[in-house]
């Protein structure tokens, strides 16, 4: 197996005023919280959005692992729909001391390049900032952070920077090169 260098960048916002929202795209694009924890739907989004950019960490999760994760207080998925069809999502995960991580964010390949991503990221970051309002008992958000890497989409870093996220860490590590799994084996061709 071949190893490749992968650069991971960590970015943050430390105040709600840091968020620089993107304009909403034209057309019937809506962003809705997936309020019923559904391992099937969450796995569909994860595999469909990340299948061509080598998201593999959760592919081996069992149904109970998905359910346990989704049942944690404050974990939220916000889904973008283009004319009723899921186009992408952002997943929020609260951490200690008022920190919220945008754990996953992205669009299904067919919906990229339509100006949905900036809008979805803006909306997701705003929901990270007001997460405690929906979850009594969670600390008020003091910091929102995320990471992206050199395997992610070519416009990912620019989108994060345009939304007001600031770089706070960079790491380069050797990782095993894996084939893009697609939403199911063989769905994407290089």
Describe the structure.
This protein is α+β, with helices and mostly antiparallel strands. It is 24% helix and 32% strand. It contains 5 helices and 7 strands. A 7-stranded mixed beta sheet has the order 2-3-4-5-6-1-7, with helices on both faces. A hairpin with a 2-residue loop joins strand 3 and strand 4. 27% of the residues are buried.
Features:
190 residues, alpha+beta, seven-stranded mixed beta sheet
SSE diagram, text form:
Layout: E1 3-13, E2 29-33, H1 39-50, H2 63-70, E3 76-82, E4 85-94, E5 99-107, H3 116-129, H4 131-134, E6 143-149, H5 156-162, E7 166-176
Parallel strand pairs: 5-6
Antiparallel strand pairs: 1-6, 1-7, 2-3, 3-4, 4-5
Helix pairs in contact: 1-2
Q: How are the strands ordered across the major sheet?
A: 2-3-4-5-6-1-7
Number of strands: 7
Label the structural class: alpha+beta
Determine the fraction of residues in helical runs and give it as a percent range. Answer: 10-25%
Note the main sheet: 7 strands, mixed
Secondary structure tally, helices:
5
pLDDT < 50 runs, ≥5 residues = none
- Overall mean pLDDT: 93
Give the C-alpha Rg. Answer: 16 Å
What percent of residues are in strands? 25-35%
Shape: globular
Output the helix-strand order.
EEHHEEEHHEHE
Distance from N terminus to C terminus (CA atoms, Å) equals 18 Å
Protein name: GNAT family N-acetyltransferase
InterPro entries: Acyl_CoA_acyltransferase, GNAT_dom
